[in-house]
Amino acid sequence: MPPGGLEPEEGETLDYICGHYRIFQYRRGHRFSTDDILAAWYGTSWCPRADRIADLGSGIGSVAVSMAWRCPGARIHTVEAQDISARLARKTMAYNGLEDRVTIHEGDLRDPSVLAGEAPFDLVTGTPPYWPLGTKVEAAHPQAIPARLEVRGEIGDYAKAAARILAPGGIFATVFPLDQIPRAERAYREAGLLLMRRQDVIFKDGDPYGLGLFAGCRKEDLPEGFDAAAGFPVRAPDITIRRRDGSVDPTIAMVRLCMGFPPGLAVPA
User: Fold this and answer.
1) Can you tell me the distance from the alpha carbon of 193 to that of 189, in angstroms, rounded to the nearest whole number?
2) pLDDT tens across 64-80, in order?
3) 3-state secondary structure at position 59
4) Which of 222, 167, 195, 216 is nearest to 51 (CA)?
5) Structure confidence by residue, pLDDT tens digits, 39-97
């Protein structure tokens, strides 16, 4: 159980995110989403050993606090450029008793000096913005704009930053829309990363729109010729969030259980 001891200030909410862990959010700002939970689940599921974790562009700390819940022995470092988001993240970590395990760095993830003094990381995660600036309507709250639009870098910058700080054999895991799969694949390739795993998440059965989950490591960490022989990426069966009748699909229910959520499946009377 988290120690608590902090309360929401004006314009903030305090919401459950994983198990008994809670997160501070602005009521009308950027709030955690299914994307964040999926990124935390996927990264912690496929990293061989997550002793040291970094989350890039960490926002209000939703991915970081979720991974802290999943990996109770891990030490986590986050990088966030917006001070208003970093402030909320610090508040969340204090509420959940994680100040000794989670270090929040304020800075631009594209700046090599931000984590230069840290030891390499077994797992690096990132939930990059999905669209170039000017291609979508900007959010009303200034905090939410960089979470949606590419104000400070795009997925390629996340991949390059991850490749720079990964430990040998470490994993970079991210999430990106299904209609932009080539961009995600190119980001891994241009950063010198081998995309090893991919799994698609469909929002509603019958609707093609959804998200892709990606995990890969540096090609130089693998035996020579391994990438060609293995035929990467390995594709797992799709996850569906909602069935056609609007009910929760069992595939996402299993993810919810892994992340400390009620599964959401209807219980027979």
Assistant:
1) 5
2) 999 999 999 999 999 99
3) coil
4) 167
5) 999 999 999 999 999 999 999 999 999 999 999 999 999 999 999 999 999 999 999 99
Please check whether residue 148 is in contact with residue 129, taking contact to mean a CB–CB distance below 8 angstroms.
yes
Q: Is the dihedral of CA 60, 64, 69, 73 positive or negative?
A: negative
Which region holds residue 156: left if phi is over 0, alpha if psi is between -120 and 50, else beta? alpha
Give the tokens for residue 167: 């430990």
- What are the two backbone dihedrals, phi and then psi, of residue 41, each rounded to the nearest 5 degrees? -65, -45
Q: How many helices (H) and strands (E) does the chain have?
A: 8, 13
Q: Are 49 and 73 in contact (CB under 8 A)?
A: no
Q: Give dist(CA 239, CA 178) in Å, integer.
A: 13
Scan for tokens 């600036």, then name that residue.
Answer: 133
pTM: 0.93
In three-state form (DSSP H/G/I as H, E/B as E, the rest C), the secondary structure along 230-269 is HCCCEECCCEEEECCCCCECHHHHHHHHHCCCCCCCCCCC
DSSP H or E stretch at residue 170 = strand 166-177
CB 201 within 8 A of CB 210: yes
* CA 18 centroid distance within chain: 14
Pairing of strands 193-204, 234-235: parallel
What's the CA angle centered on 191, arms 117 and 82, to 5 degrees? 55
DSSP 107: S
Reported as half-sphere exposure (CB side, CA atoms, 13 A), residue 222 has a value of 18
CB 42 within 8 A of CB 215: yes
Please state, in angstroms and rounded to a whole number, the distance separating the CA atoms of residues 63 and 41: 9
- 69, 227, 269 from 153: Cα distances, Å: 28, 28, 50
